[in-house]
Amino acid sequence: MELDEKDRQLVKLLQEDCKKTTKEYADNLQLSKTAVYERIRRLERTGVITNYVALVDKEKVERDFTVLCHIKLVQHTKENVLRFEREILKLAEVSECFHVSGDYDYILKVSVKNMKNYREFMVTKLTAINNIGSTQSSFSIREVKNSPSVYI
Amino acid sequence: MELDEKDRQLVKLLQEDCKKTTKEYADNLQLSKTAVYERIRRLERTGVITNYVALVDKEKVERDFTVLCHIKLVQHTKENVLRFEREILKLAEVSECFHVSGDYDYILKVSVKNMKNYREFMVTKLTAINNIGSTQSSFSIREVKNSPSVYI
DNA sequence: AATAATTATAGATTTTTATTCTATTTTTGA
DNA sequence: TCAAAAATAGAATAAAAATCTATAATTATT
Questions:
Q1: How many other C-beta atoms can be found within 10 angstroms of the C-beta atom of residue B86?
Q2: At residue A69, does pLDDT exceed 90?
Q3: Residue A80 placed within a domain
Q4: Does residue A70 lie in a domain region?
Q5: Number of domains in chain A
Q6: One domain for residues B20 and B73
Q7: Same domain for A71 and A107?
Q8: Which of B19, B89, B137 is the closest to A144 by Cβ?
Q9: Which residues in chain B are contacts of A11 at CB distance < 8 A?
Q10: Are residues B75 and B35 in the same domain?
Q11: Residue B88 maps to which CATH number?
Q12: Cβ atoms A152, A8 nearer than 8 A
């Protein structure tokens, strides 16, 4: 799907706030309500917009202890990798997990309440997964930026 | 603010999909429309829910080349740190930036189109920031999980 | 370049949902 | 135990989404 300038502006607005009225986006983009309505439907239909979600203040729900956990596997057989990834998907504390090149195999973003809970997570959940060679935890001292949006 | 079980379930639902009707959440939680409506307003008012956003398919908008970039600063004076963070905030390609403990000072999540664009980003934007000592780029081979939501 | 076909847009209408209101129930605290 | 406060349900109203019809703009075709 080709995005024109109006589409890009619209996606930008929807990534900032998806709960405005069609009329508000329309006024902002100098289009009619129907035009914006149809454009949004098209963005949804073609899969550019995948879903709409509420964002939560991690501090308010006591999950603002964030750790970037670097993991090396012992063995890199297909079965081991798939099992590892399947197990990671089950862990609610892990909001992001990337298989990466470089010094480590995986980088995880983990959000828990405090160090005690992180230790618990490590001991009872993470290292319970077979085939983990070593881990290196980088504790977040400060969140400079943390947004799910993508510039377009 | 204290969250009861209904609140937690509601936040979970809203983090998955914030565009359902009040009635749908009400049916799911076995509450009336008004009860759910008031609970949502309270979650917003107390700052548990910060905002509502559209999520975009990075592949569809050609920003699915993801890199976790580890940065060491040369000097850690207050001014240097603040200037570095101020400059990072300006870079649209950086969706996340954490000041961390451990081997590196900062970990960034960068989303661009391809390696060529990443190189451009590094050369013209990132290393243009003063005070960067060294960088280590971990290229995402596969996104196992990538969600902005928090378990509660 | 002219015209047909397609697509996008605007404005009006209808339908659905959010919001407000009032009464009732439940919970909390003295 | 009772009064006050908070939460809930259901009804009424207001607002927005969704649809429809007509028009304008764009694209493709000859």
A1: 11
A2: yes
A3: yes
A4: yes
A5: 2
A6: no
A7: yes
A8: B89
A9: 54, 56, 61
A10: no
A11: 3.30.70.920
A12: yes
Q: Angle at CA A92, nearest 5°, toward B39 and A58?
A: 50
Distance CA A15, CA A4 (A): 17
Question: Residues B70, A101: contact at Cβ < 8 Å?
Answer: no
Query: pTM higher than 0.85, yes or no?
Result: yes
Please tell me whether residues B22 and B86 are part of one structural domain.
no
* Residue B1 reports pLDDT greater than 90: no
- Sequence length of chain B is 152
Beta-carbon neighbour count of residue A116 at 10 Å?
A: 10
Q: Are residues A69 and A130 in the same domain?
A: yes
Instruction: Flag whether A150 is in a domain.
Output: no
| Nearest residue: Cα versus C1' of D18 | A37
- Does B52 sit within 8 Å of A150, measured CB to CB? no
Please give the residue range of the domain that contains residue A22: 5-45
Does A120 share its domain with A87?
yes
Taking CA–CA distances from A63, the nearest residue in chain B reads: B150
With CB atoms and an 8 Å threshold, state whether B150 touches A56: yes
CA angle A63, A66, A67 (to 5 degrees): 140
For A55, residues 6+ apart whose C-beta sits below 8 A from its C-beta are: A148, B15, B49, B50, B51, B52, B53, B148
pLDDT of residue A1: 79
B88 contact partners, CB below 8 Å, separation of at least 6: A144, A145, B94, B97, B106, B108, B129
Residue with tokens 């949804």: A44
Q: Is the pLDDT of residue A59 over 90?
A: yes
The confidence score (pLDDT) of residue B27 equals: 96
Average pLDDT over residues B112-124: 98
- For A115, the token pair is 């160090």
Is A77 in the same domain as A117? Answer: yes
Whether residue B72 sits in one domain with residue B18:
no
